[in-house]
Amino acid sequence: MTYSTPSLLVPHSELAPLQSFRLLCPGPVNVHPEVAAALTSHEFSHREEEMSTLLANLRHNLLRVAGVSAATWAAVIITGSGTAANESVLSSVGAHGRVLVLQNGEFGARLAQISAHHNETKVVEHAWAEAYDLARIEAEIDALRPDMVAMVHHETSTGMLNPVEAVGALCKRRGIKLFVDCVSSFAADALDLEGAGVTFASTSSGKALASYPGLSVVFGRHEAFAALAGRKAPCHYLDLFRFYQFAEGRAQTPNTPALPLLLALARATELVVEAGPSQRVARLRKLNDRVRAGAKALGLELLLADSAARSNVLTSVMLPAGTNFDAFRLGLRDAGFVVYGGKGPYEGRMFQVSTIGAVDEAVIDEFLVAVGNVLRRTAKARSVA
Ligand SMILES: *Cc1c(COP(=O)(O)O)cnc(C)c1O
Which of 155, 156, 182, 340 to mutate to test the pocket of ligand 1 (most atoms within 8 A of CB)? Predict the structure, then answer.
């Protein structure tokens, strides 16, 4: 892929034209018009009463979407993408302890990378898209006796859901904390945080909550946040306890938040609550079923054979052998659609279709027609060459 960097000296009017797309990638997503309107709806100070109202509303609704009680759980908001929430937990909670990271794709690998900066870190490695080996995980837990296990709920790089309940049961029995990266799954795939024995979970604004990117969220039990009091976090800005203290004590954030993004996320979260979190999960399941049926009708294979492991966030579709992914991607861009390709072992071999933004059946049908057209064109170009 090549990108040209526009010179800073080029006046705005002469920049290459910027375009908008139908975003069928797992973030950024197309937002609801009311979310776009909320972004610039109000101007006030984050140290005044309005901020407390906004933050209380947002934190309350996030817990409603999570399906947990405010008496037991809290949500804190961090300005920064999903990785900020993940690093906040891994640095503050790990705090130079022992962390076992479960990996079966790109985002598990990232958790391991982040944790290695802060903790004694061991990784249980699986092949990408390989189901967790629970016997091996249990043996590794007993060998390392970690303070915390970290895992990804929905491994975005493959589309696979990992078994939080099963890992949670292993952790709960031994009194080990469990951190689950729910960055892409939150508000799309159901997860009972309380029942599964999760200690902390993370998400971000720009995925299935369907707002703009730039904010992230850490969910945790009050007692787990409170247990961080007095511990010296390895860094100041992402000190998870400070976020909790400011949120609970003052209904504010420790530092200047991206206020317009908070306004947009508050409306986006309200929209999920209004639609009903479980109705949203069902709707996303239906949209993905439509993508899957459409891909099959085009003669395309899906990456994941086990339908129970497939998320409601996205579908990973294998490209026909010999298809050049970049030509395919550019063909879809010409038709107005953005999709991402595979990474790691699947680079150049598959594409991913996500439906977590403001997408409906008509958009999916239009997209499937475009995929058929682009594949026919690229196959023809191959047979001529
Ligand atoms: C998107 C994502 C993240 C965070 O990535 P950012 O680039 O920081 O937004 C983390 N984990 C998973 C599973 C994700 O899908």
Answer: 156
Which residue ranges make up each domain of the chain? Answer: 12-30+277-384, 33-275
**Whole-number Å distance between alpha carbons of 321 and 300:** 10
Is the Cβ atom of 152 under 6 angstroms away from ligand 1?
A: yes
Tell me if the domain spanning 33-275 has CATH number 2.60.40.1120: no
From residue 300, alpha-carbon distances to 134, 248, 268, 295, 316 in Å are 31, 50, 34, 5, 10
Q: Give the pLDDT of the chain (385 residues) as one tens digit per residue.
A: 555 665 567 777 777 888 999 999 999 999 999 999 999 999 999 999 999 999 999 999 999 999 999 999 999 999 999 999 999 999 999 777 999 999 999 999 999 999 999 999 999 999 999 999 999 999 999 999 999 999 999 999 999 999 999 999 999 999 999 999 999 999 999 999 999 999 999 999 999 999 999 999 999 999 999 999 998 888 999 999 999 999 999 999 999 999 999 999 999 999 999 999 999 999 999 999 999 999 999 999 999 999 899 999 999 999 999 999 999 999 999 999 999 999 999 999 999 999 999 999 999 999 999 999 999 998 887 777 6
Q: Are 111 and 135 in contact (CB under 8 A)?
A: no
Q: Ligand 1 pocket, 184 CB below 6 A? A: yes
CATH of domain 12-30+277-384: 3.90.1150.10
Is there a contact between 224 and 193 (Cβ–Cβ < 8 Å)?
no
Asked whether the beta carbons of 90 and 111 are under 8 A apart, the reply is: yes
Instruction: Say if residues 378 and 326 touch (Cβ distance below 8 Å).
Output: no
CA-CA-CA-CA torsion for 373, 379, 381, 385, nearest 10 degrees? 180
Vertex 59: Cα angle to 63 and 255 (nearest 5): 140
Nearest ligand 1 atom to alpha carbon 27: 1
The closest alpha carbon to 312, from 185, 216, 158, belongs to 185
- Give me ligand 1 centre to Cα 316, in Å: 17
